[in-house]
Amino acid sequence: MLRRLWLLIFYVPLCTWILIPSAWAQAEARLTWLDNRFRVDPEIEQITFVVTREQPSQSVVLVAPDGRKYYADRHAKTMSWYTDKGMDIISITHPMAGPWQALGKVSINNSIRFISNIQLQAEPLPAQLYQTEVLKFSAQLTQNKQPLLLRDFLDRVQLKVVFYPLTSILSNKSNKSNKSNESNESNDPTPIEVGQFADDGQEYDEVAGDGIFTVALNVNVEPGKYRVEIASTNGVFKRAVEQTVLVYPAPITTSFVQSHQPLTSHSVNIEAKADQTLAGSLAAYLVVKQPQQKPRIIQRSSHRQQSHLVLTWPNDAQIGKAWWRGWAYVTDSLTQRELVFRLSQQNYTQVAAVAVDFSASLAQQQAKQQLIIQNEQQQRLLWVVITNIVIVISVLVVLLMWRRKRAVQSDLIVPK
């Protein structure tokens, strides 16, 4: 019994000394450092501090190792400072090595967390895009080449996709106007925002909070050459990824034919360019809303070797506003890339058919017919009169000439 007691007295402290450093090391990363101080190593090129504050409180004051103080509205150009209710996110490029301190009502329940070596990684866009095309596009933030999953940080990150026009492929303007436009675009291109990333598990985003930001990139820009920039826009951190793409005209055309007769259907005609798309790969999906009816879905796909579709729905003769919208799908023949195009909502109005009084219409038709008959009879009578006059005159002329001839003969003296 004494032997077992001595063994417990000996081994328990040893195990405690072995386990405590490990537990302390794990807790140290989560707990606030003493007096809100933290040390930055010399090899760190970029660092971000996420400071949680008590409420109500103002933004913290950041004190550098050399004693310089930085504020949310007064800080160095190498800093980006994002302040939110109860939180400061401060990013510093090439921070001074040594002890830093955050002065303010730092919450005792949250640590000052450090994020270093943040990188923005984005999938490469296809070099050839199409106007009105919609494609799924993803980007991710990493820390030391590992996915960054700090929700307090990620929830405040805003990533946008911006197109900067470089040259125009299609232009109907004069050469002088083109040169002027190209000069303006190259000097000061007007940015076109085409999408914002989200990590909320909605629409194209697969999993909320997994650190992968996704956007339904709507390439609703004019055909041409663009510099595409993916960048942070809210000052949490400064990162950007760029590449150059070409935007071509859409390889499909869409036309809508509205019916004005109850027995004739409305129709949407979709035509794919045979030299740019695979035959038989065209499909479409429409949502149609007619007056006093719930939206209905119409789906069609082309048969083999076909490059067109016709989607129809009946005209129910109801009065009111109506609309349709949808999607078209086709395969690029050159790259075998599956293309998705949004068919923007098109509104139209269904009006009531004009009520017709058949009896009145019949009477009008009969009156018109009678008038036509009378006109024809008058024309015939006129021709008869004219013809008779011509005949009478002709007879009179003939008789007059005959009488003159006889008178001349009777006046002749014949010698015996």
Written description of the protein model:
The termini are far apart. The chain folds into 3 domains: 73 residues, no CATH class; 130 residues, Immunoglobulin-like; 99 residues, Sandwich (Immunoglobulin-like), CATH 2.60.40. Strand 20 and strand 21 form a beta hairpin. Strands 10-17-16-13-14 form a 5-stranded mixed beta sheet, with helices on one face. It has 4 helices and 24 strands. The chain is rod-shaped. 23% of the residues lie in helices and 38% in strands. The relative contact order is 0.09. It is of the alpha+beta class and 416 residues long. This is TIGR03503 family protein. InterPro entries: CHP03503. It comes from Photobacterium piscicola. Keywords: Membrane, Transmembrane, Transmembrane helix.
Characteristics:
single chain; 416 residues; alpha+beta; Immunoglobulin-like; 3 domains; 5-stranded mixed beta sheet; 4-stranded antiparallel beta sheet; 4 helices; 24 strands; rod-shaped; disordered N terminus; membrane
Gross CATH architecture of the largest domain: Sandwich
Major sheet size, sense and barrel closure: 5 strands, mixed
Helical residue percent band: 10-25%
- Rg computed from alpha carbons, rounded to a whole number of angstroms: 44 Å
Strand proportion = 35-45%
Q: Count the domains.
A: 3
Structural class call reads alpha+beta
CATH topology of the largest domain: Immunoglobulin-like
The arrangement of helices and strands along the chain is HEEEEEEEEEEEEHEHEEEEEEEEEEEH
Instruction: Record the strand order, biggest sheet.
Output: 10-17-16-13-14
Overall average residue pLDDT: 79
Number of strands: 24
**Poorly predicted ranges:** 1-34, 170-174
N-to-C span:
200 Å
Please write the CATH class name of the largest domain.
Mainly Beta
General shape:
rod-shaped
Number of helices: 4
